[in-house]
Amino acid sequence: MADYHKPEAKTITELKDIAHKLRIHSVNATEASNSGHPTSCASMAELMSCLFFNEMRYKVSEPKDPASDRFILSKGHAAPILYAAWAEAGLFPESDLLNLRKIDSDLEGHPTPRLNFVDVATGSLGQGLSVAAGMAYVGKNIDKTNYRVYCLIGDGESAEGSVWEALHFASHYHLDNLVVIFDINRLGQSEPTSLQHDMEVYRKRLEGFGYNTLVIDGHDCEEICKAYHCARETKGRPTAILARTFKGKFFPNIEDVENWHGKPIGKDSTKVIDHLQSLIKNQGKHNLCIQKPSTQLSPLDLTNLRMIERPNYKLGELVATRLAYGNSIQKLAQSNSRVIALDGDTKNSTFSDKVLKVLPDQYIECYIAEQNLVGVAIGITCRDRTVAFASTFAAFFTRAFDQVSNLEYIPFTDFWDTRKT
Length: 421
Known about the structure:
Blueprint: H1 9-33, H2 38-42, H3 45-55, E1 70-73, H4 79-89, H5 128-142, E2 149-154, H6 161-172, E3 178-184, H7 199-208, E4 212-217, H8 221-233, E5 239-244, H9 269-279, H10 321-335, E6 339-343, H11 347-350, H12 353-358, E7 363-365, H13 370-381, E8 387-393, H14 394-397, H15 401-404, E9 413-418
Parallel strand pairs: 1-2, 2-3, 3-5, 4-5, 6-7, 6-8, 8-9
């Protein structure tokens, strides 16, 4: 592998230590709230440690800096470890983690954009990858810069059709700045997942979708760091990292045991924490330096957009609503390079193709995959990088009502329910 240098032994030790600290934070937080998913956090601890403290480029002081790498936690129920990672990075005091799920705390059971380090709510499973794909599309084709997008998906949620819609989209558009991380911990909520640890089936499916596919031990920091580097070096296609993990990893008598989903550890929490503490080599603060973005990207002001030239209609002229819509977004897009039209293969009915015909770089075809259409539209507007107009037939949008519910958090996304008018 070109230019790959194995991390020093002390760096690997630090990353292992941080992973255990993230587990401890997750246990303590869920014990304090008497609610949450500590075992789901434990399976992804090394993946998070190596990503946040060795691979990603971002500003701790400015989590939504436009030039920073992006991270989407699609398995949002593992929010405690996301919060723990930012606390370990120094964004806020570790003591705040004990406010998890309290009525007056923004550290909810699932991430929401009320937090300055969260771009989109991911409480409902299967939605994160579409958002991440939208972010990656903007980075590659609109911002045209080098920030990268990482999305962590649970193996249980990978049964969602919306995940496969997004996988197809990202492969079709060759989003080599996107890394999809599958936390394959074998266990779902009520029983083992359908594939459990059949990594070969996962590998064949992702390779079939055109991904640079890497199967790794999700608890081996050396393998994880190498996989992240390989993803960064891969050009022309996205990367899927299939991490074989164990739910409740390093929790004595709980690791890889069923019926622990969504439950605090309870009476055995002290025993678990003591065991995790015994695994940590350096009990103090870590000495790793978080890498900052290598480029700068200016924030955009997308408020108060105006048409330079309005559509020209005669008084009394009858114009179909959908045609008026197409004319309007075309004029708006001609006046503003950050106005983007999206459609699901109905563009010649919704007239969003009016944008495509004159400004092809400001049009995204999402094909017949409405859940992904809405998710991508949300993703391209994150961090105020674009204004999105997503269109298809109203009946088709009903398939994406759950995704549409995320819109309360997103300021610059408009959806057009077209009817035959």
